[in-house]
TrEMBL record:
Protein's name according to its UniProt entry: tRNA threonylcarbamoyladenosine biosynthesis protein TsaE
Gene Ontology BP terms: tRNA threonylcarbamoyladenosine modification
Family (UniProt): Belongs to the TsaE family.
Organism: Sphingomonas desiccabilis
One MF term in the entry's GO annotations: transferase activity
GO cellular component, one term: cytoplasm
Subcellular location: Cytoplasm
Source species, domain of life: Bacteria
Signal peptide range in chain numbering: none
Keywords: ATP-binding, Cytoplasm, Magnesium, Metal-binding, Nucleotide-binding, Transferase, tRNA processing
Length: 150
């Protein structure tokens, strides 16, 4: 595990842009943390760096917000599992199949069992007393050559 301090929403956005430089279709990025921790800011930075011109909406109500070329460089599914009440509801979303050719960016991944994210880059955001966000990364083998971000 490794930690990064994010001092502002702009730094979270820039971190997302750095993720976009190394992420690929087939990857999963799990963004965990309390409400307001910066998960969506990281996702927005990533999507902007992949070419999205407008600000990405939070997928809280849609649950899955898909993006595809020419809107983004490659297909991306921005997923927010906050509203799921039971893990089996995720089966209807078809994330496993969609992930074959898309990058999955998942907020609130803890709504599903850990087995769903064994190969995901798991980023946990923790608000600190001084207003910064501590980002702790759990880096799976498939991300080792790409981490830490430069």
């Amino acid at each position: 595990m490794s930690d990064v301090l994010l001092h502002s929403a702009e730094e979270a956005h820039a971190f997302g842009a750095a993720l976009a430089r190394v992420a690929n279709p087939g990857d999963a990025i799990a963004l965990s943390g309390p409400l307001g921790a910066g998960k969506t800011s990281i996702a927005r930075g990533l999507l902007a760096a992949l070419g999205l011109m407008e600000e990405a909406p939070s997928p809280s109500f849609a649950i899955v917000q898909p993006y595809a070329p020419p809107e983004t460089r490659f297909p991306v599914l921005h997923v927010d599992l906050y509203r799921l009440e039971h893990a089996d509801e995720a089966d209807e979303l078809g994330l496993d199949e969609a992930r074959l050719d898309a990058l999955l960016v998942v907020e609130w991944p803890e709504r599903l069992p850990d087995s769903a994210w064994e190969d995901a880059l798991w980023l946990t955001l923790t608000p600190e007393a001084d207003g910064t966000r501590r980002l702790t990364a759990k880096v799976p083998p498939s991300w080792k050559a790409r981490w830490p971000l430069t």
